[in-house]
Amino acid sequence: xxxxxxxxxxxxxxxxxxxxxxxxxxxxxxxxxxxxxxxxxxxxxxxxxxxxx
Length: 53
What we know:
By secondary structure, the chain is an all-alpha fold. The protein is built from two helices and no strands. The protein has helices at about 10-15, 20-50. It is elongated, with a radius of gyration of 17 Å. The two termini are about 30 Å apart.
């Protein structure tokens, strides 16, 4: 994910379908939550395995 000065793909999707803004944002937030969880699980596995080297 990149937060920057430019507009995101999310902004462009909402521009194309403003009536679906709430659903678009909801789906994107679920994706973020799922991916953050996967990242944290991977970091935990790496950290817990660091002492085994």
